[in-house]
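Illustration 12: Ribosomal RNA small subunit methyltransferase E.
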Amino acid sequence: MNLILLQPSDFVDDRMAELFDERAQHIRKVLKAEPGKRLRIGLLNGPLGVGTVLAVDKHGVCINCAMEEKDPPQPRIDLLLAMPRPKVLKRLWAQLAALGVGRIVLVNADKVERCYFDSHVIDPDFYNKLLIEGLQQARCTHLPEVLIRPRFKPFIEDEFDGLFTEHVKLLADPSGEKRMDGFDFDAHRVLLAIGPEGGWTAYELEKLQAHGFQLFGMGKRILRTDTACIALVAEANQLAADSVTPAQV
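Figure caption equivalent — predicted structure in token form:
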């Protein structure tokens, strides 16, 4: 845990927060903090800051919080992901938050098992804990927005265009001849579409391209969903960072 991530409900006044859960245990047992110890803190969906420990006991920790004036930059990468196997998605939640994804849309596809959408791994009480774990690992505060869309065609036809209006839309598929670094990332948000391990169908590829997606590939190797997600999101974030000029920082 490289950041103590706070929520508004943790505050007893404008500056003081009290913790009684696993964060307090981490502060006591791992950081071995005593009064006066300074900690890296952040407000969920808000600024980073420095917390000074005021009191520690077996029940909890009291922290005085000094937050920065500006929030950290929002992630520029969003993800449209064909619903993976639940055990794979369980592994992905924290990693996607740590890498920096602004919005995650889990969508159905022809080669997705319908029962995947009945899994507890898409329950907000389950995945939010893992997303926060990823944020604390990466010292980030922006919680990804998660949308679950179990019907592919209605989502693409009725909702998609309103959600992603000014994005560079990139569709990962082995048939794509262009590489990701061949697209213009300058000043744009980026939406990556990653299909199921069996691949998008011809209909799905056609439908996505009709709504602005451009095909790209990453070579002849066929990757598992979790490997592809981590590799592609990491590359997209680096390309987005490289496209920012000094005046934009």
